[in-house]
Amino acid sequence: MEKKKNKQVILKDYVxxxxxxxxxxxxxxxxxxxxxxxxxxxVLLKNLFLSCDPVMQFQMKKAEQPMSGYQYYTPGSxxxxxxxxxxxxxxxxxxxxGDLVWGTTGWEEYSLIQNPENxxxxxxxxxxxxxxxxxxxxxxxxxFAGLYVINPPKKGDTVFVSAASGAVGQLVGQYAKLMGxxxxxxxxxxxxxxxxxxxxxxxxAFNYKQEPDLDAALKRYFPEGIDxxxxxxxxxxxxxxxxxxxxxxxILVCGMISQYNIGEPEALKNLMQIAxxxxxxxxxxxxxxxxxxxxxxxxxxxxxxxxKVVYVEDIVGGLENGPSALVGLFTGRNFGKQVVALPx
Length: 344
Hints:
Elements: E1 3-5, E2 8-11, E3 24-27, E4 31-33, E5 43-51, H1 56-59, E6 80-90, E7 100-106, E8 110-113, E9 120-121, H2 138-150, E10 158-161, H3 169-178, E11 182-187, H4 190-198, E12 204-207, H5 214-221, E13 226-231, H6 235-244, E14 245-253, H7 272-276, E15 280-283, H8 293-305, E16 313-317, H9 322-328, E17 337-341
Parallel strand pairs: 10-11, 10-13, 11-12, 13-14, 14-15, 16-17
Antiparallel strand pairs: 1-4, 2-3, 5-6, 5-8, 5-17, 6-7, 7-9
Helix pairs in contact: 2-3, 5-6
């Protein structure tokens, strides 16, 4: 069988606190067979794009109390995540050599996937393939489920999006605008604020790092209160939002990145607002909503083609630059959806 060197990103050891580039090794010591054994049901993939997602930092930690649905990394082995790939060899009846797919794959040049039924075949190639790590991938399912299924806002609603320039937030804001809402986003730099207002069509945006009083900032942008808050930050931002929600408002929670790598989660002072204002809080994850994918494609692909929705990506080249790109997520270094491109 033909063998090929297989560059990989290896997790050295379990990570505590914020991940660092030094937590990873880039190796080319392993090799992989480019043909499958007779009778195998597996597929061999050549990886093209790898997705950097905040959830990956959970998977680097030693799971004292494992969370359902999470696959934790093994020190000394390659990490994995969502990616886009081309099928090199297939023993699966629904996938053939040359097919393009997205799904969970290794952070390596070639991946052998033993359960290929979890891969999604890509049929629409008139949009960038990298979009299948973002707007047409896991972040896209998250944004679509939240805004179109779990709690669709009404025309005229006021919508606040935190981490608004990231993989999910930029979509939530644009979808809410398509629904006729007033939308404000928060981000961590003036450059990102300009992106939200000038390219993504948000009504307004602010740099939370330059706001000494988040409650006052929200009152400035939402003098009559917030109908829908799309929560991705937590901590002080959530505490301030609770003071500014409208009666019967809704908070959709898909992440709290400010709380991921601190020793003790920040306490919230304003929880009584939930009762006083009869606020609905709905936590959700993409894992429960992949069945919506055909509906997502039917709804969102026309918006992409008609340029009613744009998607901003931060693409770095080369697997060796993957750890730096991934670690940068946790300091806000990325500008848009962070993607690692491998040689095609």
